[in-house]
Design a protein that fits this description.
233 residues, mainly alpha, elongated
């Protein structure tokens, strides 16, 4: 009975990690086709706000799916740590990882919410009367919510979670050790954009770090599914 429970847990966690990895490509495709996302994040208000009106349906659908993806990051992060620690989170460092996953999820959802709430309102105002005041509001909101969501949430907090998860993976050996070491590299890469808070601009770094961490997730999920059930006994 214990073996069957462990096997189900293994299959569920591995599948969850893979599905979460691939889910990112849905908003990437929708928003990429509609507004050239994520490149549009660096465009000025005069370019982005009209696009939000012209592509309103696609923008809302894309960002809603991206919001779902971001919310699902927390249960994925929790269940992955639980699996790596033998079925439940049982160590102080494991719970620390769960905590960072939670605040990462909160931060990134705050960042995404601007595109479903405040930005459409600004776009309507821009349509009625374009002006410098709306540009200032757009730039300020984008910098604040983007800093919270992308730099702090997706970068710093998720990067710390990745480092902790990798440390647990190396210690517990439920996946090959090299996957844990790969996660350490991915975690450091995720954290690196935090230098932008010091005024250091690194163009294109977020794209590289996002690709690296999702490759790590995909390999992790496949490794979990491929692990023999008897190895978890």
């Amino acid at each position: 009975m214990e073996s069957h429970s462990t096997q189900v847990n293994k299959a569920a966690v591995g599948t969850f990690v893979i599905v979460e990895t691939l889910l990112l490509f849905v908003p990437l495709f929708i928003l990429g086709a509609a507004i050239n996302w994520p490149g549009s994040l660096s465009e000025p208000a005069s370019v982005v706000l009209p696009q939000l009106i012209e592509q309103a349906g696609a923008v809302r659908a894309g960002y809603f799916i991206y919001l779902v993806y971001s919310i699902l990051f927390f249960p994925m992060a929790y269940f992955l740590l639980a699996y790596l620690e033998g079925g439940r989170v049982s160590s102080h460092i494991g719970w620390l990882g769960v905590g960072f996953a939670a605040i990462s999820t909160l931060s990134r959802t705050i960042g995404i919410a601007r595109w479903l709430t405040a930005m459409p309102n600004l776009a309507m105002r821009w349509l009625e009367a374009p002006g410098r005041d709306i540009e200032i509001a757009y730039d300020t909101l984008n910098s604040l919510a983007g800093g919270i969501g992308e730099i702090i949430g997706v970068g710093l907090f998720a990067g710390i979670w990745a480092l902790i998860t990798s440390r647990v993976a190396i210690r517990e050996r439920r996946v090959p050790a090299w996957i844990g070491w790969m996660g350490l590299v991915a975690g450091i890469a995720l954290i690196s954009p935090v230098v932008e808070l010091l005024g250091i601009e690194i163009d294109g770094l977020v794209t590289v770090t996002t690709a690296l961490v999702h490759l790590w997730w995909l390999i992790m999920g496949i490794a979990i599914l491929a692990r023999p059930a008897k190895a978890d006994l």
